[in-house]
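Good day; I would like, with your permission, to put a structural problem before you. I would ask you to consider whether the tokens describe a fold that such a sequence might reasonably adopt. The full record is reproduced below for your convenience:
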Amino acid sequence: MKRIALLLLSCLGIWLLWRPWSAHDETSPLAGFRDKVLKPKRLQSTLASVEDRLERALDAASQLEPKSGYLTRDCFESVSQEYLIQAQSRYLPLRQSLSTPSPVTYYFALNLYNNEAILPDMIHQLAQVLAHLGPEHCFVSIFENGSTDETPNLLRNVFSSVLDVLNTPYEIRLSKTERTPGAHRIAYLAQVRNQALAPLYRLAKPPTSRRFDQIVFLNDILFCKDDVLELIYQQSLQGSDMTCGLDYDLQWGDVPLFYDNWVARDITGLSFYKDPSAPIRSASADLYTRGIPFQSYCCWNGMNVMNPKPFYEHGVRFRKGQDTIDPNIPDTGECGASECSLLCKDFWHTGYGKVVHVPRVKVAYEERVYVTLHSRNEARTGQAFDRQFRPQGALFLPEESQKITFQPPPPEQYCMSYHDPKIRESVFFATWEDTPFHELDPLELG
């Protein structure tokens, strides 16, 4: 028996030594696929300063730097010393270290798909954000799925290394899950976004029992460090539940045009417009043009800082709308909007309806849009409608630090429904839909 036991132990030992294994990787099944999950080997106690770690992290990321330099180098190169002094003072309260008492904790969520082109800039800017907020006080969750470019390799070989050097906990899930033919587009996108939030709920349970104070959800965008810090600053200042920038595309070759008007709604419930001179037609239009934060009904627009309480305490998740609307029966079904639109709706329904757009933060998804967006302003073009675009590093106006007096929700909001021929939905592509009522007034929740 002893010989048999020793033989079995020997075989087990040989198998353990032979099998492909890394303390960095795990696998878990998801929707019939086996996903690669990257996590830190272990969080290290380090005596190195955050500044030293950031320097080493940026050095690790520099292997991806294009020969022409980072696209987002204008975040700092083209700004004045006066702006740098203003920004340093403005964002100093957000700076944290290991010794910060009762630190604010941040959960960063990202969905990535074929983003090889923007990842060098994203890694470079996000590393600086994490260092500012305190690397140990942040968690980064990335769900990548179905990429056919170098995105998985860049996440595996570079992004994870940068986070390791910073000593930031993370989970990077590399999935082969793809949208199956015939699958509902919004249901699929909701599932993908929920995957990026999956560690949020797991970490809230024992043995970690860790809850985060803010969620920062990033689309695959080009942004500056100060863009993220400004949204976090405004979320804290305004006591808002959602705080977003604005995203843009191009029209007529070089004219920036507001992008995601499927989701964005002003506080009257109106959609934003794809109009280069006036994307907003309500009372918020003047605030938008002057770059002053304003209240909205719904936002997403590339980057969203969110209150996590609706997720933790009310079971809010990304979802698709109810399938059936019968125009002959009142109050049935639901407009089949974007998963982000429905998230706003559910935030309001659970009593968390303080939504803010921050016009200073303007982001893009592609290089050509980013370059054009950051080069347009009235002083350069002479066009009056370019007054809405301020130069990178424009000095802060006093009004940008004024608190918003929040208004109740509109009685209804303009909804554009996603149509799928296999699913019964409204006969109209766009309709006015009643906004959700909640017995708890979000303006009284603090």
